[in-house]
Amino acid sequence: MDSDDRDRAPEQVPVGPPTGATAAADPDARTRAGRRAADDSGTDSAATFGRGEGDRDTRFFGQPWALAHVFGVEMWERFSFYGMQGILLIYLYYSTTQGGLGLPETVAAGIVGAYGGSVYLSTILGAWIADRILGSERVLFYSAIVIMAGHIALALLPGFLGVTVGLILVALGSGGLKANATSVVGTLYTADDPRRDAGFSLFYLGINLGAFFGPLLTGLLQTTMGFHWGFGLAAVGMALGLIQYSFGRKQLPPEASIVPNPLPRHRYGLFAGIAAAGLGLIVVLLLVGVITVDNLSLVVIVVTLGATIAYFFVILSSRRITSTERSRVWGFLPLFITSVAFWSLYQQQFTVVTIYSDQKLNRDIFGWTMPVSWVQSINPIFIIILSGVFATLWLKLGTRQPSTPVKFAIGTMIMGVAFLLFLPFAGGGPNSTPLLALVGILFVFTVAELLVSPVGLSVTTKLAPELFHTQMVALFFLSVALGTSISGWLAQFFDVNNEGPYFAILGALAIVVGIGLLVSVKPVLALMKGVK
């Protein structure tokens, strides 16, 4: 495959907030063929070889039958994840008489933002465990069990106990599954299998189907039977995916279970001690009041920022990378900053936009009131529709398509415009914003997303030094974690009775960040050393 093809291929596999994986569980990820396969898939999860049987197996829409098992567990995981998240925020701030916990809206939004950021932080842990201890397939399986346990806790445990236990388990489990599901899919194909792109596209279709149906059904149960029934349905969905995967996991190739860089047995105690010390520190900080429910999103921001600085320092200070690779890492830095700005606005779908939808959106449809969570199903519809449009566009443009920094800049500016589109409806009373208006705004959200999310995951694999491939993809996930946490922190400045300044300032800032990257395209491309 020539370089132009490699540049174009990743755009054929769009994702929501990134669900791709790292190459942590892939022993060949640092080979030349592995890099080519990772580029082709738009992830850092490819590079497996010798699937003779898989090449002949076309039972799942022309793809290997084993894909159906990973497709299923990922679809049901997204069903449960977005289904739960669709009702989580309103559960936290609805009054006790409405079945909620009665938290202030800003505190509730901060918790949701911190939780979302923790999910992406957990991908790093999930990748490390796969790389050093268990392998991707086993981490995926155990993560699904942890996720199901988290949803059960939300459904059955009362009050804040259920929220605390449930969100911790779901965050850890989702991080582990996110970090390994795509990697397992990569093991089903040889690097030059012509079905790869179609297989990954089918896989991501499952992701968006789950993201579409989850909020619809959990929201319907929440409005008719109560919040805990909605959380219970999320648990049932994850259980269905787990049962299917339990029967099908034996059909996956051996490569899916490889531990590429096993941790020596004599070091197990050391890392167990580090983990215990970390947990102990968190408990102490909770007990002395340093970490509170009010500052949770800020704590996750600080932790993520610290991890980001550490990752950049380790990579850039390494004597084992070439001057070209070091330059490319510096070229990634402006993309990282822009990505943080983008996700800090985009992820407000689950914080500020949810509050807005609850209080300002006219959800009346012929006398029936649409559940708040249904708003979360709008974006997956547009992703399914527009992903093919963008894939066709990039293929048509070929070498004339915009470079990655330009796509990032335009995507972030469009995200800013989406926030400005709230301004014509500012100052309105309850139920004053037409539903079609919010549908249009979320359409703009999706256009911006498709210019940043798949492009970012793809370019990260191309800019990564050979010795730090996994760490660079982890950095991209850290940009999502940081942006998601910031989206929760920013909610404290949102006033539903005076929302104009909030949307105007953040929209303008995003446009300024985009313009800043746009005018810096030439020096950024110079640092990227031939990667476009």
From TrEMBL:
UniProt topology in membrane: Multi-pass membrane protein
Broad class of the protein's primary localization: membrane
Record keywords: Cell membrane, Membrane, Transmembrane, Transmembrane helix, Transport
Major facilitator superfamily (MFS) profile domain boundaries: 70-525
NCBIfam families: yjdL_sub1_fam
Compositional bias (Basic and acidic residues): 1-10, 27-39
Pfam families reported for this sequence: PTR2 (PF00854)
Regions that span the bilayer: 79-95, 107-130, 139-161, 167-190, 202-221, 227-247, 268-291, 297-317, 329-346, 378-396, 408-427, 433-452, 473-494, 500-519
Locations listed in the record: Cell membrane; Membrane
Similarity-based family: Belongs to the major facilitator superfamily. Proton-dependent oligopeptide transporter (POT/PTR) (TC 2.A.17) family.
Protein name in the entry: Peptide MFS transporter
Claim: NAD is one of the keywords in the record: no
Region (Disordered): 1-55
